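Q: A reviewer asked whether we had any structural model of the full assembly, not just the individual parts. We don't, so I'm hoping you can provide one. Inputs are below.
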Amino acid sequence: MQYDALGEFEQSVLLAIAHLGDRAYGVTIRQEIETRTGRDIVIGALYTSLARLERKGYVRSTMSDPTPQRGGRSKRHFVVSAAGAAALRQSRERLAKMWAGLQPDLRRTRS
Amino acid sequence: VKQQVPRVAARILAWSLPEADREAVLGDLSEEFLSRAEELNLRTARQWYWNQVRRSLSANVARRFTESFSRRSPFAGSVQDLRGAVRALRAAPGFSVVALFVLAFGIGSSTLIFSMADAVVLRALPFDEPDRIVVVGSLYNGHPGLETAATFLEWRERQTAFEALTAIADGALIIKTDSQAEEVRLERVTAEFFSVLRVRPPIGQPFTADNEVDGRDGVAMISDALWRSRFGADPNIVGETMKSNMGTKTIVGVMPPDFSYPAGAARPTDVWIPYVVPAKERQRATASRVFTLQLLARLKPGLTVHEAQARIQQITDPVAKQYPKWFGPSGIIGVTPLRELIVGDVRRWMLMLLGAVALVLVLTCVNVAGLTLARASGRAQQLAIRAALGASRFRISRGVLAESLVLSGMGAVGGLVLAWWGMSVLRAAIPGTIPRVSSIALNSRVLWFAVSATVATGLSVGIIPAWQAARTSLFGLLKDGGRSSTAGRRPRRTRVALVVAEVTLAVVLLVGTGLFVSSFLRLMEVDVGFDYHRVLTIAVSAPAEDSAWKARGPAIATDIIDRLKHTAAVESAAAISQGLPLMGLQHRVGVALPPGTSPTTEADAIELRAVSPDYFRALRIPIQRGRAFADSDGSDAPLVTILSEEASEKYFDHADPLGATITIEGRDRTVVGIARGVRQGGPETDAQPLAYEPLVQSPTVRTVDFVIRTHGDPLAVLTQVKPVVWSVDPELAIRSATTLDTLFNRLTAVRQFNMLLVSLFGLVGVAVAAAGIYGVVACDVAERSNEIAVRMALGAGRTRVVTDVLKGVAAYIALGLTAGLVGAAALATLIKAFLFDVQPHDVGVYGLVALILASTGLLAAWLPARRAATVDSLISIKN
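A: Here is a predicted structure for the entire assembly that you could use as a starting point for your response.
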């Protein structure tokens, strides 16, 4: 089955959720991407991406109970769905196919 | 401290987010905010929060609205509305152009004034965490004053409120090269200066406390400007030396290019050298009291100004009890944020201007609302057809609203161009005495303001016509095909109400203008007590380390005056020490009177000036009784003084002061003359008691100001004056050569500037109100053209018809006038502090304003009325 192509940022978000397991929500996802890649993620961009992923059925979310350190607001937990995992794999395979056969020092010659 | 997320930011964020995400995103941000606030600090956390909100805004808004457009939401079809609005505006070019001009002016002028207020008053100082920088010192008239070295040393050692406390002594440095000497502004500072202001020099390093010892203080930091102008931006400057009147200085570093201190000064400092506390000023017991140090400090994090004040007061109180004369009269130590000190009085002016420009903006809105309404009645039929085709009332009023938003958006573009252009004019025109002028710019804050002003304008302009459009009766309109004789009663009443509002606002603005203009005129006519026209003035100072100057100063000055008198273009020349007239009260000394006269108290201090004999002749200050100083009043002759009439009245009441003895600054002097009072403190300050002493009899002469009355243009004489000064002593430095006329203009420049701006607003107010009246009357007579034609066909005279129209107009002009005068009278008390010699309820001003508005209004009404009455009645009826 063909899945919609994933953008780089969407991949990062999905992978961060996968890494985090059951601890994935806005704050941790943002920090996970930030510590791994050094990218400074704006919350608005993150949720825009999450909304799109959810619409495509790649992530599912549940609301948890409110906590005081969040100003009495609830958390929204995310998990990667089976379709999301499949889409991730497909993206990786497509890219791998494109990379196959290129010199290992490609990056250096191009930059 | 309660650690709470920035409320405004949270509000904006919540608004921008799609409903479904609100809870989670707000929660995420506040969680991370709290952890940041704990780990780092509250300030950084707030910045981070704002940053997140700002950068998320466009993505959020886009998502929110695309999502809501896709559903059946009240915003569906907005794009269509906008297109329709543009089409409608293009269909009525006359209306659109006029409205655009009015809007562009309203938005442009308010943006301009906001940018000025923002740069001068609202924006933070250009230092790291500027809110923590404070000035510390005994309070005089509510401001922290200068302190002694002994107090500084004590505080520096014992204080617990500040991260760092530094002492700054202002001064001048003469840099010498082989060919010439140049004077630059100098500050002697302790090493903490650089940590208080958090200066990180791009070249070299600031000097340290090690340099604050005699012998090791031959180092200097220089400004970026001096580095470029004098050292050709040499990157290897560190280690270079420069010769000066204070010895040879080794340059250790260059300040950052954007660093300017004192912040906002017209003439910032160029050289900083270590301040070494003189040995004899270290102990209170031995020291004479010299108040020369401004103390600047950086508050410890989390400490409020209030807490810092309490701490410094606590360690000072016991000392102040023992040495009361070392502290201010109240004994209270002030801790004032640096910004407050710099912005000071200007703040009130700026807020007043912001208030005035807000009135202009409101007036703009009212006017364009009126125009829109007049137009809306013309196309009521078109709207009715849309309604008949099934458009809801909501949809129709939204269309009208979209039009006004598009209009104000376009007006904003014009306004920004206007503001941008105005800024360059303003920067050049603004008086140099207003701080931080150079930082006026179209920055993001100003743009935010412009955008908010635009949206607010668009909504308020559109809301009334939109509401009117929604409640129009379709049936009636369609039935008579738009040919009904008059528009519905309600729209007309609203239009009239808007005109009344315009007149009201214009009256308020014009009364403000009147009060400011007459204040300025009175100031120009004020008698300052001397003749300041055609007088050149130069300040001459000797090398600061020349200890012989104190003794030689008067002799040198006398020598210079003698030589100046023989210069062709010079009518008379004289010298004054301790400050020119108008330039401020700065040398108050104690007075004691001989037994038999009224006793004096501490409050009886007097301003003292040392002058050369010809001073009164050069400035044309009449000697009312007795005599002026003469050459015979030499340093060995009996000590004499001349009192101003105010001083004579204050100290001698009705007794005859001539020949009496008065003790001034500890020395007994005989009064030989009474001079007319002079406004020493400035053009707006009444003449204060003043005493003169002969320059050669003065114990304290440092800098001497020369006043030179010339035959022709004073500045042209300057080229002849300079060689004369240097012929006496080539080491002398000449500063601030200018005319007294220029000084007077500089002192009145802020008032003049404000008057011009307020006048501009007043004129615009009248013009806009007149345009409003014209518009309504034109619309009115057009709607009534049938009726008018019939009346004229039945024999009514032209004059009669015109008079009838005018009568109606006069009624609502009168209504607006009354409301405006009452409103102005209420508001005028708020600007009382800005007025000079004019009462806030000056009858003349109010009367004149009423006259101007009534006549302008009637003229604006007369033009369309007359035109209506000249139309051939037959044509009108046929139509």
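A: Points you may want to mention in the reply: Residues 481-487 of chain B have pLDDT under 50 and may be disordered. Chain B has 25 helices and 23 strands.
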